[in-house]
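pls design
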């Protein structure tokens, strides 16, 4: 079993992240999720569940270090990692990073 759970990092590209705001086109996102899951079933006989939050999320405040980037996880589980990359590339989910001095939107393919 492979599980990937994203965590809001406290910094990104050298900037302190105050919070993330996710927006999505839900109907299309669910169709993309279904397509990604069907590809995984066909290619690897894998069972897969995909869930993505929307709304505002603050960085994780934990004594543990942040999890490795998904590219690091990719070396550990190619099938799961390719599905995560497909989700990041194809699903209509947009992320706005908020910093102490401003913000930036990160869209499809982030």
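designed seq:
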């Amino acid at each position: 079993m492979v599980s990937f759970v994203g965590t809001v990092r406290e910094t990104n590209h050298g900037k302190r992240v105050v919070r993330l705001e996710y927006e999505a086109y839900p109907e299309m996102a669910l169709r993309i999720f279904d397509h990604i899951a069907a590809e995984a079933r066909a290619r690897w006989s894998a069972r897969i569940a995909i869930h993505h939050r929307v709304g505002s999320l603050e960085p994780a405040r934990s004594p543990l270090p942040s999890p490795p980037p998904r590219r690091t996880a990719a070396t550990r589980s190619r099938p799961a990692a390719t599905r995560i990359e497909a989700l990041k590339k194809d699903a209509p989910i947009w992320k706005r990073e908020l910093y102490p001095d401003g913000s930036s939107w990160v869209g499809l393919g982030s």
